[in-house]
Amino acid sequence: MKFKCLAAALLSSLPLFAHAQTNVTIYGVMDAAIAVENTDTPGEGHRTVINSGNQSSSRIGFRGTEDLGNGLKALFNIEAGVALDTGAADSSLFGRRAVVGLQGDFGTLTVGREYSPIAAVAAATDTLGQGMFGSNLSAFARLTRRLANSVNYKSNALSGFTVNAAYSTGEKTVDPSGDLMGASLEYKNGGLYLGAGYHQIERLATGDDKEWGAGAGYTFGAFEVKGNYLVADQTGPNNEYKNANIGVAYTTGPNKFFVNFQQQKIETGAKGNTVSLAYTYNLSKRTNIYTTYAQLRNNGRGVFGIYSSSTNVTPAATALGADPSVFTVGVRHNF
Predict the structure, then answer these.
(1) Which contiguous run of DSSP H or E holds residue 5?
(2) CB count, 10 Å around CB of 88?
(3) Which residues pair with 332 in a beta bridge?
(4) d(Cα 225, Cα 217) in Å, to the nearest integer?
(5) Helix (H, G, I), strand (E, B) or coil at 204
(6) Torsion of CA 88, 91, 96, 100, to 10 degrees
(7) b/e per residue 188-216 (b: at least 16 CB within 10 A)
């Protein structure tokens, strides 16, 4: 009887021991919207759709840390995308992020699928939060945002400066290797942010693709001003793509107003300009409603699209000069 009582006591205490060793958090975002989309493709009219993630991509994630002593911690994070309009998961279960690593006085070292160094700079300098239509996510149809099969390092802040470095292996046995090497430098001081990053990718045997980006942001009172310049220069003639953004946000009480201007260009002469207007209203600390309107004007060679966090409105490839637009109203809940 005494043995049974002792066993029961030990079993009941296991969750307490587990909790003391590892802290695990379940978190997520659920975002759904009604949108009216018009690609301006000849022969097509506008359509009304239910979208998932027009402000933030819907997701569920698990993250945790374990204190190893002497200032060293183990950490992990896995994050899966969810489409609220259909209930479907992303094609890769934990395609948003999947890492394990160590953190200490030396900084943070992770292995797995991670955001790229340029992605960190782009996210910090996008007025629309890389969410609502017109965000700089349009650039990442050409630049690299996430790195599979990667080793990543982030330094601790020193006098406001942080260094990010990454190496992603293409896991090929013959050239071109598909490897990517990248780094970025960020600076934060009060309301000021500055950042710049660079990637080099061995995609073709004839030469390396190059990607780079720089951005800045400043918060003063109720105003935020952010801008960035992102470039993807693939091997070959007339392939260089440029994406420039400048935006302002103003907060008053639970209300926040956004305006952003974006220009996309390709070396061939294609160009598209986008103006985005957005508004959010906080119903609580975790729930808000939002609306966005964006209009893109392509020149005669352009066929660019308007991107939100999880979807885009893009003309058909043959519809040169088409001018897409989109209006959306949605609700977002964080947990």
Answers:
(1) helix 2-21
(2) 11
(3) 31, 288
(4) 6
(5) strand
(6) 120
(7) eeeeebbbbbbbebbbeeeebbebbbbbb
φ, ψ at 32 (rounded to 5°): -140, 150
Cis ω for the linkage preceding 42 (within 30 of 0): no
Token couple for 281: 């209203």
Please, which residues bridge with residue 231 across strands?
A: 212, 242
Yes or no: say if 299 and 320 are a contact pair by the CB < 8 Å rule: no
219 contact partners, CB below 8 Å, separation of at least 6: 191, 225
- What one-letter code names the amino acid at 125? T
CA-CA distance, 309 to 136, in Å (whole number)? 10
* pLDDT per residue as tens digits for the range 240-286: 999 999 999 999 999 999 999 999 999 999 999 999 999 999 999 99
**Letter for the amino acid at 217?**
G
| Cα 53 from Cα 38, distance rounded (Å) | 18
Pair of tokens at residue 292? 């966005």
pTM: 0.90
Q: How far apart are CA 102 and CA 111, in angstroms?
A: 9
Supply 122's token pair.
Answer: 């782009």
* CA trace torsion 267, 200, 77, 141 (10° rounding): 20
Cα–Cα distances (Å) from 87 to 52, 59, 62, 81, in that order, read 9, 11, 19, 10
Residue listed under structure tokens 């279960």 = 93
Q: How far apart are CA 92 and CA 149, in angstroms?
A: 14
> What percentage of the chain has pLDDT greater than the value 70?
94
- Residues of the chain falling short of pLDDT 50: 1-20
Q: Take residue 251 and report the two structure tokens written for it.
A: 């907060």
